Amino acid sequence: MPLKFNPTIKQEKITMKICSYNNALPGLVEGDLVYPLADALSAVGATRVGASMAEVIDALSNSSKAKDAIAQARLGKGLPLSSVQLKSPLDNPPAIWAAASNYRAHQAEMIERVGSYDRSQFSPDELMAEVFLKPASALVGPGGTVILPKIAKHVDFECELCAVIGKEARNVSEADALDHVYGYTMCWDISVRDPWGRKHNTRNIRKGFDTFCGVGPWVVTADEIGEPQDLHIHVEQNGKTVMTAHTADMVNGLRAIIRFLSSVSTLKPGTLITTGTPAGVSQLAHGDTLRGTLSKVGEMTLHVIDEA
Questions:
Q1: Cα-Cα-Cα-Cα dihedral of 5, 7, 11, 13, to 10°?
Q2: How far is 26 from 36, CA to CA, in rounded Å?
Q3: 11 lies in a domain?
Q4: Does 74 share its domain with 203?
Q5: Full-model pTM
Q6: Domain count of the chain?
Q7: What is the pLDDT of residues 222-258, one digit of tens each?
Q8: Summary mean pLDDT of the chain
Q9: Is residue 2 part of a domain?
Q10: Strand 232-237, strand 240-246: pairing
């Protein structure tokens, strides 16, 4: 029986929010301040100088020196959160895995919107075999801009819970799956529906355009989140509510997705696994503003413009 909900998860990681800011620098977010982490991590030998955000996540998740670095960073001068430019928390993750059609209500709306085939009788693994990859070149961060390609006649937003792998995972069980998660963030899976959305499987292209993967506002450690199948998703488009959902309604919970993916591929620290959109996707147009809220994670805004 797939494991989808456990209200008594125990975690031993450091509870905090980790961001990437300005020139892709790692930071610790506490209240309305950002404490620089790069120098502290390299000073204690947890990372190399100039480490990528994936390396930072690896160190924070696995290095015995991480607590010393966090303590040192907290002694420094914090920057006002309002004074920094938040970036995607990871700019070059080892992989961005994305679950497809993972809410029944979204399956139904896509049958109506673009004539998708019926997946209601798929086994869990048959549905998870539709997982796809998004390119790192598609990443944008909080306050970023989604560019609608000239070729696109119809582009939708999708808003999702996204897990960040901290401990390398290969052939892990559902029972152990969350032990490999460092934290959680929000993912916007922007998707072309027309052209190429009706006749054949073209997800990697339709969802792979530059700016088609918004991630942020930061990574919240698993300790703060607790149960990933007990979170609310809320999206406003131009101030109007268009999506309200709960992660308990996933067909395949995160544990199952990690079990399946790790049976196929080694999941390296910094890997993103976005868990599929609920129903409520909506077409985008030039000038739109999207505001998404994921409980216990935070809020993220995106702007939308036509390609010049």
A1: 90
A2: 6
A3: no
A4: no
A5: 0.94
A6: 2
A7: 999 999 999 999 999 999 999 999 999 999 999 999 9
A8: 94
A9: no
A10: antiparallel
